[in-house]
Amino acid sequence: ESGSMSEPAREVSAARIAVMNTLPGADVPGETPLQHLHLPAPGNDEEVALALEEVGLLGHLVLRCCLDNSAQVAAFERAVGLPLPVSPLRAASAGDRVVRWISPDEWLITTPSAQAFAIETQIHGTMPGHYSLVDVSGGFTVYRVSGPRVPELLKRCVSVDLHIAKFPVDKVVSTVFAKHQALVHRRAEDAFELVVRRSYAEYLWRWLHNVAQQVVLVANEEPSRR
Questions:
Q1: The 191-197 sheet, strands edge to edge
Q2: Distance CA 75, CA 193 (A)
Q3: pLDDT tens digits for 6-31?
Q4: pLDDT-based confidence at residue 50 (cuts at 50, 70, 90)
């Protein structure tokens, strides 16, 4: 048939992969979704009851592959330097490099942006079989919330049970968060990271900031009540 693609050519076309380095040039400064905001972190004079921080300009890669394929799992671990979390709702991390379980065949890799292109290239160069790897760095940002009052803050945002026995360190849950959605990851007993969509980043930050001020205000009033 005129204009149709032959079978060998079709196979080559299907195997071709486009990998682009999304880092801006040296003369193009990166900007986070909150670049234009200057909101002070809430706290009190005696201790920082809550700390809010945007961990911006990270690389975000979404991987879909088959856990039953041991060669794929091994290739991933060689490329990323972390084990692929096989248990539901779990994460693996080493410093700023984190792999979070999303679904039975889907994971989110976050890493310093300068390393994202190398990791993406390494996975494409070594991963066998059928898989999907997509750079979604421009669509997300990460918030870190920490401090002794952080459970009180998050209880006003999610309906998930945050007790340490039910939500241990390195558990990760995708859930409704402040009428939107976030990926909630417990990094330590009093520290969480929230992966949020860029389009709702300012809304969720302002929500967190307002609720944090309320929590800290209550904390400051507690000694006088005693």
A1: 51-55, 140-146, 191-197, 180-188, 172-177
A2: 27
A3: 444 444 334 445 555 665 555 656 77
A4: confident
The type of residue at 108 is L
Per-residue b or e along 33-66, where b marks 16 or more CB atoms closer than 10 Å to that residue's CB: bbeeeeeeebbeeeeebbbbebbbbbbbbbbebe
The predicted model scores a pTM of 0.81
Helix/strand/coil for 10: helix
Tokens of 198: 């860029």
**Residue 32's pLDDT band (cuts 50, 70, 90):** confident
Crossing angle, helix 113-126 and helix 70-80, to 10 degrees?
A: 150
Q: How many residues does the chain have?
A: 226
Q: How far apart, in Å, are the Cα atoms of 31 and each of 38, 58, 116, 138, 200?
A: 14, 11, 17, 10, 16
